[in-house]
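Sorry, any thoughts here?
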Amino acid sequence: MSVGLTAATMPPVVKKVVMLLTMVTAGVVLSGGVGEGATLAMYNKCRETVWPGIQPGAGKAVVARGGMRLQPGQATSVRLPAAGRAGSGPPGLRLRPRHRPGACATGDCGGSSSATAAAAPPATLAEITLARPPDFYDVSLVDGYNIPMSMTPFRGTGGRCASAGCVSDLNEVCPAGLAVRGGADNRVVACKSACSAFGAPQYCCTGSYGSPQQCKPTAYSRLFKTACPKAYSYAYDDPTSIQTCGAGASYIVTFCPHYR
């Protein structure tokens, strides 16, 4: 069954993005040669500015100059390459209103507003592999968490086409040993993964723990999974985390989807 958004539940800015997706999808069907690509729409429902960084797979062209700035309530869309892997994150979360590259509170990109260089964890990550069909996509907390994120297919056929994501505020339940604090009030602004925090093989699924049979959920990954059941909680959390969608799908990534 295909899962999508209805006009009744969409704010005006998202209706415009969905209209754009509809027009692009129709154009792709008619043009044939570029019909293997997809459109990725991004909508910022957060109260702060977000810088989504887009990293293509190895050997693929940079998409949208590697990232962009989304003000609260702003939406945009980009075309994804016809094949390969592109991440819609990690997003750099800007808690201060002025544009000063490298000053992101979380998901910092090393002094650049573009994310052609990997953003520093902890940061929520959305991934999509355009196999066409099916596409494979997920939202991952393997590198930690900074803001809620959902990924929803639009007009896909075949596969489950279910939403992926972490829509809870994991910072509210982040254990002290994983918490990253910042801001004038020293509040929790991000939550590290156990692998990032401790580097132990049993958390990172490395060394003698480098297989699904040996690397099992831990107390930390179970906490992540309880809060965000539709997101990767550790490296081998595939069965309940990766989603598929068939031909013709485009995707909407929403930052802070729980905000109204």
Remarks:
- Confidence is low (pLDDT under 50) at residues 1-10, 17-35, 89-103, 112-117.
- Helices lie at 12-31, 194-198, 201-204, 219-227.
- The two ends are 26 Å apart (CA to CA).
